[in-house]
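Aim 2 progress update. The chain analyzed this quarter is reproduced below.
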Amino acid sequence: MMTSKQPYLLRAIHQWLLDNDMTPYLLVNAEVPNVEVPTQSVQDGQIVLNIAPHAVTNMQMDNEAVSFSARFSGVAQSLYIPVVAIRAIYASENGQGLVFPEEEIFQEELDADQEKLAESELPSQSTPKKAPPKKASPKKAPFLKVIK
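Predicted structure tokens:
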């Protein structure tokens, strides 16, 4: 099974936006497990984050997650966003970027989880199999809203 292409596209679009002097924003589904963002800034289960170099410190983007520190209402906070929770990356100035289809993202994650579970079980074990994680229920299509 191939690895997800989302983290690679995320890093590429991030660099492209920076190279073009744009301000990269992330649209994050804050309801995905393990997302660590300021809950007071979450609206309708989502949060938009400015990830420009002047707005964040200690940014790490790898195949699993994006993490960084940022200030919210003057208070420094550490954020952790699994790649599967990122719905879009775009420029605040003109909205150009990339929207990730939610169904594909969750399906890739679900497939990877099921594969790991199957590999970890020994054939001689008589313990019952765990139920696979539930697929996220379909929601309204995401939309981008430019806030000035």
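The chain has one domain: 6-120. The longest strand covers residues 65-72. These observations will guide the mutagenesis experiments scheduled for the next reporting period.
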